[in-house]
Design goal:
By secondary structure, this protein is an alpha/beta fold. Helices cover 39% and strands 12% of the residues. The longest helix has 23 residues. It binds pyridoxal-5'-phosphate.
């Protein structure tokens, strides 16, 4: 049996939406992007969405919109994809890591205050695997010295914790529509915010800092545009938006299937003494973006390869990023600095998780994991 690590849920109706755009005049940022942005804002219950080309771009622009630059520090987690910390470095600011909770793998709010210095300007929590961080506490901690909170919600579109979704307690939240995400346009991203000025600034920052986009320039009486600030070329296009619009209608139903699969996995592994799992925090609805197991660090790669040999698509999300060469060399990070993130990073394996996974495939994955971890 071959079980892919991920299979997207693009349906014929989504393809028809893309074909309609391809048969239309406007391929770049236009009405279809606006339509997606409005729909995404409604879904998230936030005021504004700005569509961009990736979550990396979303993180970068959000930091810029809040004035991050050289000399500033941004507190984040080493248990994430490199995009989180890299986006901080793009602005000239410095990523400052804080260790994570052993139960969830999310940034440990208890450790944040000790990492705040006079240079700290923002906190960038990451809602790992779809489980939201303790945003209520993080908001309180941020408010004391007046820090900005920019959520990396790449995994967490559907998530809710203590009644709050992404964007609710942060100044901005950033989402990914990368190929393996819960909704996808191959590549793509968005920023959600409730701040009008920031949304307007982001609209300019995503297109070179120009005062008018192509649709605006073309469809009205021609007016010259200005470049008001230095921006980037990060604008989402109508093709990406068309692919996403219909997926949003299925996102909750698909999450229910993900939830069910996770529960089947959890039930199947709870009596395996050589497997442990991260937990969903009380009062939380996880987006269930990824399902990971943890095994003994010295056995991890062996289990990973055994699963691959059995035809199970696997991944590692994530090895702690402070241990990667660039971060060690540039910032002097060393093993031992963030022991919980290191332990998770050394022991974690991501299993297949997507709505199209059949019951027989789920059973096969379970058997393969139990066999691969047996003595
Ligand atoms: C936690 C996290 N943040 C950010 C990103 C970057 O997303 P993108 O590939 O859309 O730039 C990813 C990508 O997988 C991620 O897992």
């Amino acid at each position: 049996m071959k079980i892919e690590f991920y299979r997207h849920d693009v349906q014929p109706s989504d393809i028809n939406n893309v074909v309609a755009v391809l048969n239309s005049l406007f391929l770049t940022t236009g009405e279809v992007v606006s339509e997606f942005e409005d729909k995404f804002s409604k879904y998230l219950d936030c005021k504004y969405t700005v569509g961009v080309t990736s979550c990396t771009a979303a993180l970068h622009l959000s930091l810029l919109a809040y004035g991050m630059g050289a000399g500033d520090e941004v507190i984040t987690t080493p248990m994430t994809f490199i995009a989180t910390a890299n986006s901080i470095i793009y602005t000239g600011a410095r990523p400052v890591f804080v260790d994570v909770e052993p139960e969830t793998g999310n940034i440990d709010a208890d450790l944040i205050e000790a990492a705040v210095t006079p240079r700290t300007k923002a906190i960038m929590p990451v809602h790992l695997h779809g489980q939201m961080c303790d945003m209520k506490r993080i908001r309180e901690i941020a408010d004391k010295p007046g820090l900005v909170v920019i959520e990396d919600a790449a995994h967490a579109i559907e998530a809710v914790r203590d009644g709050a979704r992404p964007v609710k307690l942060g100044e901005a939240a950033c989402f990914s529509f990368y190929a393996t995400k819960n909704i996808t346009s191959g590549e793509g991203g968005a920023i959600g915010t409730n701040n009008k000025q920031i949304a307007e600034k982001l609209m300019k920052l995503r297109l070179h800092g120009m005062s008018k986009g192509a649709a605006e320039r073309y469809s009205r009486r021609y007016e010259h545009w200005d470049m008001e600030m230095l921006g980037w070329k990060y604008n989402m296009d109508n093709i990406q938006a068309a692919l996403l619009i219909g997926q949003l209608d299925r996102i909750e139903k698909n999450r229910e299937r993900r939830e069910l699969i996770c529960r089947i996995y959890e039930d199947a592994f709870k009596n395996n003494p050589r497997v442990s799992m991260l937990q969903v925090a009380p009062g939380s609805k996880s987006a269930r973006h990824m399902f990971t197991i943890q095994v003994a660090p010295e056995k991890r790669d062996d289990v990973l390869w055994k699963l691959q040999k059995k035809g199970v698509g696997v991944a590692v999300n994530f090895r702690a990023i402070h241990l990667l060469s660039y971060y060690r060399q540039t910032f002097g990070y060393k093993r031992g600095m963030f022991p919980v993130a290191e332990r998770i990073g050394d022991s974690t394996i991501t299993l297949p998780l997507y709505p199209g996974l059949s019951d027989a495939e789920i059973e096969y994955v379970i058997r393969a994991v139990n066999e691969s971890t047996a003595k």
